[in-house]
Here is the input.
Amino acid sequence: MIKDSSPRIQGIDLLRGIVMIIMVLDHARFYFHADAFVYDPLDLSQTSAFLFFTRWITHYCAAVFVFLAGTSAFLAGRKKEPRELSNYLLSRGLWLILLEVTVVNFGWFFNPLLNFTILQVIWAIGVSMVTLSLLVRLPVKFIFIVGAVIVFGHNLLDGFHVSANSIGGVLWSLLHESKSFTVGDGRTLLVVYPVLPWIGTMALGYCFGTLYTESYTAAKRQQILTYIGVGAILLFVVLRLSNFYGDAKSWTVQSTPLFTLLSILDTTKYPPSLLYLLMTLGPSILFLAFAERVPNFLSQRIMVFGKVPMFYYLMHIYVLHTLAVMLAVFSGYPASSMVFSTWISQSPELSGYGFNLGVVYFIWAIVVVGLYPLCRHYENYKRRNRQQVWLSYL
Here is the structure.
């Protein structure tokens, strides 16, 4: 997610592009699936296996976004002085935080009053970049230690709580506990992405970038990536099956073996537990081990989304929400029903609204295909105008 004048790494662009495509599926579900307005798709007492996996597969998105943002920071900094990289990460991080509370929030809610502020993945990436702007002045080994301690140790804080609607409660929520707060007169702050574990994730992603330097041949890198990926998956299996550590929510035996498996896979995302990160980053790193060269037709097109992630992210929210307004009107609801002062699925004005999963998947495909020409055009524009610094911020 950071501008780099050196040749791009295809495997990273491909992985990022894949999760960008998957991301749209989850957000289409928010706006169009009838059951999204009734219950949580991960609620094993109500969901189906197909709906569960429709939601679960999108867990990979945020973890990969944040981790690879750190990797991109390292790759961008190879030919920069630490101070230059630090200043860029600081300005980039502050810009992302501003985008989250303005452009992104308006896109989600179409409410010009912005009286419902939700802090999600762009906020988390922004704060993590601001933190990384301080860490990059230190040796990589130290950054690795900081990242590892946070990622592997933050679940020790799961039992610590601070009362809500106090300064301490807000600060603790921003760090480690997802909560909603009333701010001023009629304003709500919903912290979905507490930042502490994401800071650790980005720090580890930054260190991960060292594997893409000249010190490693492709064969050696593939071997190391395989070890890391398989090791993370095995550690997830051992910790999760033992219910020993790494997630605030233990799995339980369900009515069928399939639903017992779903319980095992149902790890905590808000904030991301150690097991959530092992479950998502392990397979993603293993994928990178075998994605050094991706010359085929489909892969090349998927990579376009991975090369312009911020542009794609902003565009898909506005496109989905605009389509939702159109379909709501078509279904007999006023356009104003798609102007929100709460989270989408909690809007009382949309009782009875929505479609089946088949429609959701169709809209997902249409939006992704429709955004491709725009992303391709913007990617070509960025490539031809690399000297324009502002392009690295979008």
The radius of gyration is 21 Å. The longest helix spans residues 82-109. Confidence is low (pLDDT under 50) at residues 1-6.
